Every structure is written in structure tokens, then in C-alpha cells.
Amino acid sequence: LTLERRDLSDAELQQLRQQIDPIAASIQTAVDELTPQLNAAKARLDQLGAPPSDKTTPEPEATTEARNEQQKLFNDVDAAFRRAHLLALQATQLGATIGARRRILFTRALFERTSSILSPTLWLQVVSELPADWRAIRLLAGDSYSAIAARVGALDLALLALFVAAIGGLCVPVSRIARRLSAREIPAAGPSRLQRALTALWVAIATAAVPVAAVLAVVSVIDAFGLFSPRLLPVITAVVNGVERVAIGIGLAQGLLAPSRPSWRVVKVADRIAAGVLRLVLTVTVIVSVTKFVEAVNDAIAATLTTSVATRGIGALLVALVMGLSLLRSDGEAEGAGAQAAPPWRGPARTAAWAVVIVLLGALVVGYVAFAAFLVDRIVGIYALGAVLYLLIVLADDGIDAALQPNALLGRTIVSSLGIRRESLSQIGALIAGAAHLALLIAAALLVLAPWGLQSDDLLGYLRAAFFGFAVGDVTISMSTIVVAALLFLIAILVTRGIQRWLDAKYMPRTRLDSGLRNSIRTSFGYLGVIVAVSIALSYLGLSFEKLALVAGALSVGIGFGLQSIVNNFVSGLILLWERAIRVGDWIVVGQEEGYVRRINVRATEIETFERATVIVPNSNLVSGIVKNWVRTDRVGRVRITVGVSYDCDPERVRDLLISCAKAHELVMAIPAPLALFTNFGDSAMDFELICFVDDVEMAGRIRSDLNFAIFRSLAEAGAAVARPRRDVEVRGLQKIEAILASAVSPPAKGRSSG
Q: Is the peptide bond preceding residue 60 cis, with omega within 30 degrees of 0?
């Protein structure tokens, strides 16, 4: 076979494609093997450098010989590499030519125009050919019966009948058992969507498996007796495919819609719609299966083209009429339902269904019967694919979400082994579900487009080119290399996290290191692991530091302007980790903020205040600013309490009481010893100050409160009253008030004038 022939059929073109694909794969393997050899030869040649241009300073003879040898090796490998690339290009071009030729043949066959389904001439020819076709069918049946009678005897026929009866008898109890297993009790809170999807999957499998298995068993038994003739094989295949088509269609509809069990319905629709869709699926699949069976019989008897066109046209017309009647009936039921809310997808689905009906009827009327028959096949295929896709999406969503719950086995394993926070599990689940959605949608789109001329060989070629590398100018982009590099980076990060958890849980608790130093070691090891992971990934990608020089130069300009503060904070974070002036768990004061250091991140440090608020402080502020660290060298703290007593008290007695209260507290350190100072003669009291030290500065507030209670109680028992503040208040203007009061209370005059 050669592509120069213009009369090649689709089967012959497919045969040529199957011959080219192994050759193209071998060429790609050769290119993959030659690529590292060429890079190695180029690296060795570059290491020797160019020959000196100045002949006055000749280089050693050994260097010249080594360069010539490496140059010859490089030329040989480069020539083989170029030839392999040329052959790969030729194979790609041949594959593209074959694909284009096959698409042309497919389009020509699909849109071949014949007689209209309404043409009287078509039906007159069909009627005139019916006697000849009937005689051919009788002849086929007679030949098949004669062949069977010649091959088997009465005993064999009896055994065959017994086997077929046994298979048929097993179908009923097996179907009952399958239905009984799928009939589950409804939980009190109602079944979840995952439970409904799993039940739908089981119902679909159980409904479809029994009839399909029964037909396959019967066909296998008949074939074992040698009763199939080559002419009957397409007919038997059509019967098996028809049973599979009807069984799978009904199984998917029963599983997703559950007409008799609304509580287990995955697709939320009304009961009438569910029953109507089930009837539509049954009717359409039966019509398509019967049409395919008649087409197989036509092929077996070598019927004319007119008969084949009529068979396909009748099948497509019946499907269009059934779909139209079902849509009209659903319109009436929707009007009768009143204000019942319809699902949001109902409108677009009905519009698409009516469009398909109109296209089918139009194609049949115009004369594109082959296109109408092809469209009917696609309707059945898209229904099955859409049902399976919806079911898989529901299972992926809810299944992944249930598996990654913190209380689930997989979720607990991930949290305990990888150190992932429980809150991050939902995010991981969303990412995995999104990736599953994308993969399912891409696979479904490819399966839908494949019958329209998108050949699987072309698709695999595109995927192979994208995965194993394609050239854009002088740059080769390889998805496989990128994926492997990403996996290596992920593995290195996971190993780093595992070692960090081992250090935290196993090794460092057995040392005398404080928590701050442990965190510094853990964080530094994390940074080191990230650097190693990036180095491994870049090395696998083939990006050396020389190749990154230009990028580094551009980044340096960016760092000098926009990234300066980020880099400054990153370097400051490294300084904090290694200098350990501030550690995780330290009690520090930065400006107006005071609290505990919780995390030292790449850019900033998190401080938790005593009010449980989180303050984010850039690392550069902690390095260049003023920071008070209460626990920098140790955790010893000082407690100072000021007490004012009356001048009537004995100062020495007060001093002894203060020191005894401090010594009596169990958390006050004996060394340095508590100290009581007479600090001042106040306006109304003698001022004393008690100074003592505690082991843990975090306990200073509670100890200060305990000492205040003890001091007040001791002074009260000793009769030494704590001085109260005295204030002299001068009120001005009292003379006027006194005069008014005096005039108000003065006695009346004794003499009165008479009138």
C-alpha cells in the first residue's frame, strides 16, 4: 500500500497508520537516547575550549588531539541526532496526511446524500425489492439450518437446549438477589449524596450485568457447539450489542433516577420526569438495537443500498418521533405541576433535545440519511457517557471529601505521617477533586469527539508530542520532564517534612535543647530541604546555573527595586534563626506590643499578645529595631512591690515583715535573697519597696498578686496600717455662701408701721 493511491479505503489507511506508529515510536526512542549523548559530547567539547587564535602560543599536543577526538565524536552524534529528527518529522507528516485522508473519507461518507425519506421513489424501490430480500433471508435461514443439522445431532441439540434453559432459569433468581441487595434502608437523616451515588452505581451494574451475562453465556454455549456460520456472525454480534445497549441504558437510568425510590435519586427531578426519561431510554435503545439488527441482516443477505437507506431512515425517524412526543408530554406535565420549581438545567436540556429532533427530521427530509443515523448513534452514546460522567463526578467529589475528613482513616494517616494541618485537608481534597473533574471532562470530551473524525492515533500522537517534548525554536518543551521534575521536588519536600517531624517527635525531645533552639534547627532544616528540592528539580530539567545567569541578572534588578524589602525580611529571618536573639516561645516587647513569639516565618514573625491577638512584625524591624526579650539568657525575673505605711509604724518592723512575706512564698528564689528598701518619706506615708526574684518570669504577675495579699494581711495583724492618701481640698467663695445663709436664717424686725 502507498499513499500515492487515491482510492485507498479507511481500513487501508488505518493499516498504513498502524505500520507507521511503531516506526515513529522507535525513532522517538532513538532521539531520546541520542539527546543525553549529544549534550555530554557538547559539554566535553566546551570544557576543552576553542583552539587558540594566537599561533605564537601553541597549546599542548595532547589537548589538540583530545579536542579533535571530541569534535569528531560530537559530529557523529550530531549527525545521527539530526537524521533521527528528520525521520521523526517525516513520520509525523505521514501520520498527519493519513489522518487528513481519513477525515475526508469520513466526511464524504457521513454527508453522502441519498433519497429523501419522503420520496415515493425510495419506497417504491423498497417494495419492489422486498420479494428478493425475503427469498435471500429464507435462503440464509435454510443454509444455516442445514449447516447446523449437518454438524450436530439430536443429543447435541438436547444438551444445547438444556444449557440455554439453565441459563434462562438462573436469570430470574439472580435478578431478584441483585434487586434485594440494592434495596437499602433509608437512614434517619436521609441518604447522603455519596450513599445515593454508590447505590446508583450498584443498581446500574446489577441491572445491566444480568441480561448481558445471560446473552454472552448463550452465545458462548452456541459457539462451543460450532453452530455459528461466518455469514451469521454479524447478526449475532448485532444481537449481543443490542442487548448490551438496552441493558446499560436501563441500568444507568434506574441507578440515577430511581423512579420507584425517590429518596435514593441522584438527579433531583420529579417522579413523572424520572418515569418519562426511563420510558424514553427504553424505547430509543430498543429502536436503535432493532435497527442495527436489521442492518446486520441486510449485510448478511447483501441487500441493496435502497433497503439499507430505508432501514436507517425508519430507525432515525422513529427516534425523532419518540423524542418529540416525549418532549410534548413533559411540557404538559410541567404545566400541570403548576409552580413546582424545575431544575436549572431543564431549560437548556429541552432546547438541545428539540434542536436534535429538528436536525434529525430535516436531515431525513433533505436526504442525509447516513448523517441522521450517525446522529442517532451519537445520541445514545452521549446519553450513556453523560450518565457515567455525572455519576463519576459525584463519586469523586463526595468520595474524596469523605476520605480526607480528619476522622477518616486516610485523613488521619495524612495528618500523622505528613504533618499536614487538619484545616488543610479540605483544601487538598478540593484540589484533588478539581484535578479529577478536569481529567474526567477531558476524557469525556475526547470520547464525544472521537466518532466525529478525531482519530485516536492522531490524539495519541498529539499527547505523545506534548508529553515527551516538542520544539519551539531552539527550546524543547517536555511535559514529561516537567512532571517528573515536579514529582522529584514534591518527594524532596515530603522527605524534608518527614525528617522535620522525626526531629521534633523523636530526636530533639531527648536532648537538652530549649524550644527556641529546636525551632531554629527545624526551620533551618526546612530551608535547606527546599534549596535541595529546587536544585534537584532544576538539575533534572537541565537548567544549570550558567543558563540561569540571565534570569538571575533580571531578578537582581527586580530585587534592587520592588523586591528589596522582601529580600531584606528574608535575610533578617535567617539572622534571627542563627543569631537566636529572638526564639519561638520568647516573651518580647516591640514598641507598644508585648507577647510571645509563635512563629518566625520567611517574611515576618508572629507575636501572640496576652489578649490572644496576633501581631505580624516584619523580620527587618526585629533585627534593626529595639526589642526587649524577657527570657533571652534565662527565665529569671524580678518582682518589685511598693508599699506605703503610716508614720506611726516602726520602719524596721515593716522591713522584716516584707522580707518574711517574700521568703514565705515557695516560688520566690532564696538566692538572690529578697530585699526591702526604705525608699522615701512621702507626704502621708513612709514608702518601702520589696525586691525579690523568681525562677520563671512568666509567673511574676501571679507571685506579685500573692505577695500583695500576704503583705496586707501581715501588716494588718501587726497593727501597722497601710497609709491612705490624704488630700486637703480648698473651696473658694465660701464667704458669699455664708452671707447668704446668714441672711436667710436672721430673725424678723420687732416694730411694724401701722397703716
A: no
Q: What is the distance between the alpha carbons of residues 245 and 620, in angstroms, rounded to a whole number?
A: 70
Q: Are residues 25 and 99 in the same domain?
A: yes
pLDDT at 339: 43
> Can you give the pLDDT at residue 176?
73
Closest CA to 725 of 644, 669, 658, 656: 644
- Residue (of 115, 109, 112, 107) closest to 367 by Cα position: 115
Is the domain of 573 the same as that of 700? Answer: no
Q: Are residues 19 and 168 in the same domain?
A: no
Helix, strand and coil in the chain, % to nearest 5: 70, 10, 25
Same domain, 237 and 268: yes
Q: Examine the domain organization and report whether 184 and 50 are in the same domain.
A: no
Q: Which burial class, exposed, middle or buried, applies to 719 when counting CB atoms under 10 A from its CB (0-12, 13-18, 19+)?
A: exposed
Q: Give the per-residue pLDDT at 458.
A: 55
Cell of 622: 526585629
Number of Cβ within 10 Å of residue 704's Cβ equals 15
Cell of 510: 531527648
Residues of the chain with pLDDT under 50: 338-339, 472-475, 751-755
DSSP of 458-499: HHHHHHHHHHH-EEETTEEE-HHHHHHHHHHHHHHHHHHHHH
Cell of 735: 464667704
Which cell is 222 given? 452456541
Between CA 739 and CA 62 the distance in angstroms is: 128
Looking at the structure, do residues 311 and 170 belong to the same domain, yes or no? yes
Strand 637-645: give its sheet, edge to edge. 637-645, 686-694, 675-681
Number of Cβ within 10 Å of residue 211's Cβ equals 18
Q: Are residues 82 and 164 in the same domain?
A: no
Number of compact structural domains in the chain: 5
SS3 686: strand
- SS3 letters across 620-637: HHHHHCCEEECCCCCCCE
Considering only CA atoms, which of 380, 312, 400, 336 is closest in space to residue 117? 312
User: Do 558 and 604 form a contact (C-beta atoms < 8 A)?
Assistant: no
Give the position of cell 436531515: 363
- Write down the pLDDT at residue 752: 46
Distance CA 496, CA 525 (A): 8
Q: Are strands 587-590 and 627-629 parallel, antiparallel or unpaired?
A: antiparallel
Residue 99 CA to residue 108 CA, distance in Å, equals 14
Would you give the distance in Å from CA 171 to the centre of its chain? 42
- For 616, the domain range is 544-632
Backbone phi and psi for residue 473, each to the nearest 5 degrees, phi listed first: 70, -125
Q: What angle do CA 481, 484, 488 make, to 5 degrees?
A: 135
- Give the amino acid at 751: G
Cβ count near 660 (within 10 Å): 14
SS3 614: strand
pLDDT of residue 694: 92
> Please, which contacts does 84-89 make with residues 24 or more away whose CB atoms are closer than 8 Å?
84/27, 84/30, 84/31, 84/34, 85/31, 87/27, 88/24, 88/27, 88/28, 88/31
List the grid coordinates of 225. Answer: 457447539
Measured distance between the N- and C-terminal CA atoms of the chain, rounded to whole angstroms: 157
On whether both 371 and 321 belong to a single domain, the answer is yes
Q: What pLDDT was estimated at residue 753?
A: 45
Domain end, chosen from 599, 632, 665, is at 632
**Which of 613, 576, 575 lies closest to 593 in space, CA to CA?**
613
Return the pLDDT at 152. Answer: 66
CB 485 within 8 A of CB 537: yes
Do 291 and 314 meet the contact criterion of CB atoms below 8 Å apart? yes
The structure's pTM equals: 0.58
Q: Residue for cell digits 599561533?
A: 55
Domain end: 613, 632, 651, which one?
632
Residue closest to 681 by CA, chosen among 727, 728, 639, 723: 723
Task: Decide if 706 is inside a domain.
Answer: yes
